[in-house]
Design a protein that fits this description.
alpha/beta, five-stranded mixed β-sheet, 7 helices, 5 strands
């Protein structure tokens, strides 16, 4: 019982830096607990505070980790089998030089399967573009962020 209590995720984001807390709250409100996320940067804390599982089997995308063709194909195979309604990636000004160039197979899949819906500040001064699965978009908007809310 003690382990379950101490090992559980915090119910609130009090004490968490404001941009990260806002992002986590948006993801909690606008995805289901069984959904997964892809966060295409070195931001594993987003999964934790959003209380959502890692999508495509990869916690971080940076520094040349798992950029080989075979690794990207394996990541893409997992991605296709999972319910991943929201992907956070570098903004357009950085996308081509970072995620797009390091992970071209994954970037092509993102461009072909998802649509850019806006952006959100994840850390002070660090925005990420929000890409959504258009098949999950029912036209609802999150009142706090204005971004699509992909829950019923």
């Amino acid at each position: 019982m003690l382990f379950r209590s101490l090992g559980a995720l915090p119910a609130s984001t009090d004490g968490v830096e404001e941009p990260l807390a806002r992002t986590a709250q948006y993801l909690r409100r606008c995805t289901t607990p069984t959904d997964r996320l892809v966060v295409a940067d070195n931001l594993p804390e987003v999964y934790y505070f959003a209380n959502r599982r890692v999508g495509a089997g990869q916690y971080v995308f940076f520094g040349g980790f798992y950029t080989e063709t075979a690794a990207q194909q394996e990541t893409l195979a997992r991605w296709r089998q999972q319910e991943i309604p929201i992907v956070l990636v570098q903004p357009a000004s950085r996308f081509d030089d970072e995620f797009g160039s390091d992970y071209p197979i994954l970037a092509d899949y993102l461009r072909g399967r998802y649509q850019r819906a806006g952006s959100i500040e994840v850390r002070r001064g660090m925005e990420m573009d929000v890409w959504i699965d258009p098949g999950r978009d029912q036209g609802r908007r999150d009142s706090a962020t204005g971004l699509p809310c992909l829950t019923e």
